[in-house]
Amino acid sequence: MATTVLVPLDGSAKDERAFPVALRFAHLADATLHVIRVLDSAAERAAVDGVETSRSDVIDTRRGLVERSVPEAVEELRRRAQRPVTWEVVDAPDAADALLDCAHRVNPVLIVMATRAPGPIGRAIHGSVADRLVRESAHPVILVPPGAEFLAGKQVTLRRMIVPLDGSPAAVAALDLLLSLPRANELELVLLRVVSREPDHATAADAERQLEELAGRARACGAAADVRVVEADGPADVILGAVRRELADVIAMSTRGAGGLERLILGSVATGVARKSEVPVLLVAVA
After folding, report:
1. Residue 34 — pLDDT band, cuts 50, 70, 90?
2. Could you point out which of 28, 206, 252, 267 has its C-alpha 20 to 30 Å from the C-alpha of 109?
3. Could you count the other beta carbons within 10 Å of the beta carbon of residue 285?
4. Which residues contact residue 174 at a Cβ distance below 8 angstroms, ignoring those fewer than 6 apart?
């Protein structure tokens, strides 16, 4: 069965941010692409301003627009990807439910989607479709934030990736995923550990030894790997600052969950990173 990267679209300009990231990871994973557009009846009705017609006519109007626009986007992806791209348009009252169902059917190696700018409460993902996917999907999700608008319309390599680690086995899940990619040898990984200044926490020397062991695994897979240990009390800020210092293209990190399908990232380091990042963020949920 072919490996697939799932790309949810919503028809807005932010979709253009997701395309280059999806294409690059499809290359790294040697995967096909599957595009899905959810036609949310209530939202689509509200989007047709000034149309004085019946409910069914409005929905038909929007469906016609969607069914013309999605194939156009798919053809552009096929041209740029030089690999198979499938697509579907789904009617559903809840976009997140429809995407979770699609992910269950398609079983993608990754889901790639662009996120909206933060709302009044300052959360770019809290309460959103992206939030639901990260919390409830069994599949890794790459969020492409508004700060990564510079990616739109470009062909990018996304080679250098920061992998934050905290010394726990669960934190290694993101690294494991990257090293499992067929073209992991094209990656340059920066393994980052933020060590607290509190005396009862791991020392910088211990952290560096652990990172070097993991870096050895990465090098054995053909990837380049460097280690960085920073003593600080704000992991999210250190991770975000490292993006610019290291000229990184992606942040790849594990997120903690409560077990089962109830994946929780709200209030965690991953939330702060996903909210403020200016590069795509790969989130791998672990129980």
Report:
1. very high
2. 267
3. 25
4. 140, 163, 252, 253, 254, 282, 283, 284
